[in-house]
Write a structure and sequence with these properties.
The protein contains one helix and no strands. The chain is mainly α.
């Protein structure tokens, strides 16, 4: 009975280690995605015109794509 219990404890320990490794892998991937999205957002903000700097465009002045 004692050997069986020890075996289960060893398996549980390995499971905990594996779960921690998987959690860290998910954390790193999510952090990389967040970092990329932050960079993309900063890039898009740089491309936006300054508020009040340019005249607002009127959609009625644009030609539809089928013309």
């Amino acid at each position: 009975m004692g050997a069986r219990l020890t075996g289960l404890e060893i398996k549980a320990s390995y499971q905990e280690d594996l779960l921690e490794q998987l959690n860290m892998a998910v954390y790193r991937r999510q952090q990389q995605q967040i970092d990329r999205l932050v960079q993309e957002l900063a890039h898009l903000r740089q491309q936006m015109p300054e508020p009040g700097g340019a005249a607002p465009r009127n959609l009625r002045d644009e030609i539809p794509p089928h013309y």
